[in-house]
Design goal:
Its EC number is 2.1.1.216. It catalyses: guanosine(26) in tRNA + 2 S-adenosyl-L-methionine = N(2)-dimethylguanosine(26) in tRNA + 2 S-adenosyl-L-homocysteine + 2 H(+). Belongs to the class I-like SAM-binding methyltransferase superfamily. Trm1 family. Keywords: Metal-binding, Methyltransferase, RNA-binding, S-adenosyl-L-methionine, Transferase, tRNA processing, tRNA-binding, Zinc. About 10% of the residues have low confidence. A hairpin with a 2-residue loop joins strand 1 and strand 2. Among the domains are: about 80 residues, no CATH class; about 40 residues. Helix 1 crosses helix 10, helix 6 crosses helix 9 and helix 10 packs antiparallel against helix 11. The radius of gyration is 27 Å and the shape is globular. By secondary structure, the chain is α/β, with parallel strands linked by helices.
Length: about 575
Amino acid sequence: MSMDLNDYTIIKEGEAEILMHAKNEVFFNKTQVNNRDMSIAVLRTFISKRKQEHEALLSKRNKKNGSSSDVEDKPNDCDINIEKSNDQGLEEKPNEDPCTASEEPVKIEGKVRGKLKPPRVLEALSASGLRALRYAREVEGIGQVVALDNDKGAVEACQRNIKFNGSVACSKVESHLADARVYMLTHPKEFDVVDLDPYGSPSVFLDSAVQSVVDGGMLMCTATDMAVLCGGNGEVCYSKYGSYPLRGKYCHEMALRILLACIESHANRYKRYIVPVLSVQMDFYVRVFVRVYTSASAMKNTPLKLSYVYQCIGCDSFHLQPIGRTVSKNTSVRYLPGFAPVVPQECSDCGKKFNMGGPIWSAPIHDQDWVTSILADVKSMKNCYPAYERISAVLTTISEELPDVPLFLSLHNLCATLKCTSPSAVIFRSAVINAGYQISGTHVNPLGLKSNAPMDVIWDIMRCWVKNHPVKAQPADQPGSVILAKEPVLQANFARAVASLSKAQAKKVARFLPNPERHWGPKLRAGRQITSKHISLLGEEAVNGCLNDQDSERDAKRQKIEKSNDAIAES
């Protein structure tokens, strides 16, 4: 290779190695190893399940037709189909016959092939190409990986890294200088997997991304603009994602659900819809993995999956307002607006007003079957994941979440409202279970609790707790005083319940790990000059090193200019 390796640092992650220049020319963030490892785990499971679905389809077809050859007849209404992924000559219109939402049909364009082609992957914003290289080198059964970037320096770095990683990378990975939005629009339904990991918001890429994925394909999407998604700039969030965020303890999960609702909105414009398989909040970003399907009839269920959120400004009570509902009569189903309002003008618990946010995705954000498969795969290949400890901890916590409970409560916030001492999580969980409801933790917040118990039951449990652990008298107009002034309807039972600890907690499995090193977070955008104000992002040692290098370069340039001027003067 015609370059001086002394000018570069070799960075190894997994089986891939990349060359990074000392200057901040191409973006790289070590922290995203968690993101990349999780994506590889999901991609491995996707390839496995894609193969299983294809084999199940062929088996079903062969049994029906009594033939072991390729099947060429038209699919029936609600068959689980696998779309052709790489055959661009077929232009038949997708089947759009009615199917129920629970069956999640995968439509097919053209014939059902006896042999499934390796999946094609598009990394729309590749930078150094590390993610694409890891996909190609570590994921068995993967086909072509297309890495795009709109920056010439990044594409050159990516091509350099492809060559540096040898024949496997050269045969599978290709890098292009292109605007990801234009490329995805001009390659509709060509990629089995589309990966979006932008610096900031992915909103401008979503419309083209949902069109570029094949039916039944996977869209992986990251959003790092958490200040916007978590309510710091609600009006900006609404302009980008079409939802208004609320600043509650559950704001990070709400960010996930806002992103899912936004992707669904873009997909619906093309008679498509999404099915989330995994949604994760880690470090400083949210990451969702969704499958994209085409069905005009199943798309009608979208309003049933979206809700507005009413958050009391005085206490922690929140309530969801579904956008739509269905009415069934005989075999017909009617889609109607949701009943409203679900809350009175003032909070029934503390008497304060409500803030309204949303709409958010209120359907499940994980597929527990997928989560179980991903976790099993990760544990069986722990040496293949540099961030094994972190991603296995996150997946373990997700596997124990209640799947159909949007958002969560904070026990500390409940106690702060009442100005009381906090019961242990085990005692509170036991009281909820003994009252006949379910409760679990959440991967988003170690103090968060998901429960299908209504808010009046939660506050009754807290009233019973305060009776046994009295508090000082508070002004009568305080939310806590108003709540405690009411007698509990439910008499809470705080006896320890068997299910008060999850399996992971009972086995003392680590679920929330500290950052492995200092300054483990977002990094400076590529091309920006590092200055002393970036110490909080990069650390004092790294910044001082860069500043010293910059000073040395400046001195070398000055000396060169002075020598040149002296030579001219002498001549």
